[in-house]
Amino acid sequence: MQLNLNSKINDRISFGSSITLNYGDRKYPRNGAEDQFLSTISQSPLYGPVLPDGSGRYTSRAYPFQSPNKNPVAVAENAFTRLNNYFMQGNIFVNVKLLDGLEWKTSGV
C-alpha cells in the first residue's frame, strides 16, 4: 500500500511525502541458499532424491564412506524457515524553484 501527498505552497515552493507499507511472506532454507546450493552440487547424480523402493523416503547418503550429505530435495521440501513481516518506509521532500530552470530539492527518508 502506498500513500503520496504533494502540496504546492506557492509558485516557487512545493513539498510532499510518500509512505509505503509492505507485507512479506518468505519461505527459505533454514541454513540459507548457500547450504541449498552446496547440498545440490555435493549429491551424486547417480542417486535419485527418493529411495527406489516406493516408500517415499528421501535418499540420505550419496557416498557411503563419507559423512552424510544433505539431500537437496529433502532440504527444499522440509527444512525451511518462514518469515512473515511488515515493512514501512516513508520520505518527505521540499522543492524550491530558485530561478527559471534551476530548482533545489531536498528529501529525507
Features:
single chain; 4-stranded antiparallel beta sheet; alpha+beta; rod-shaped; 109 residues
Structure description:
With 109 residues, the protein is an alpha+beta fold. It has two domains: 1-25 and 90-109, no CATH class; 31-78, no CATH class. The chain has two helices and four strands, in the order ββααββ. It has helices spanning 33-42, 72-78, and strands at residues 2-8, 13-29, 80-99, 102-108. A hairpin with a 4-residue loop joins strand 1 (2-8) and strand 2. It is rod-shaped and about 80 Å long. The two termini are 17 Å apart.
Structural class from helices and strands?
Answer: alpha+beta
Give the amount of beta strand, in percent. Answer: over 45%
| Biggest sheet statistics | 4 strands, antiparallel
Low-confidence spans: pLDDT under 50, at least 5 residues?
none
Helix coverage percent of residues? 10-25%
SSE ordering: EEHHEE
Write down the overall geometry. Answer: rod-shaped
- Enumerate how many helices there are, as a single number: 2
**Could you give the distance between the termini?**
17 Å
- Total tally of structural domains: 2
Mean pLDDT: 83
The strand count comes to 4
Rg computed from alpha carbons, rounded to a whole number of angstroms: 27 Å
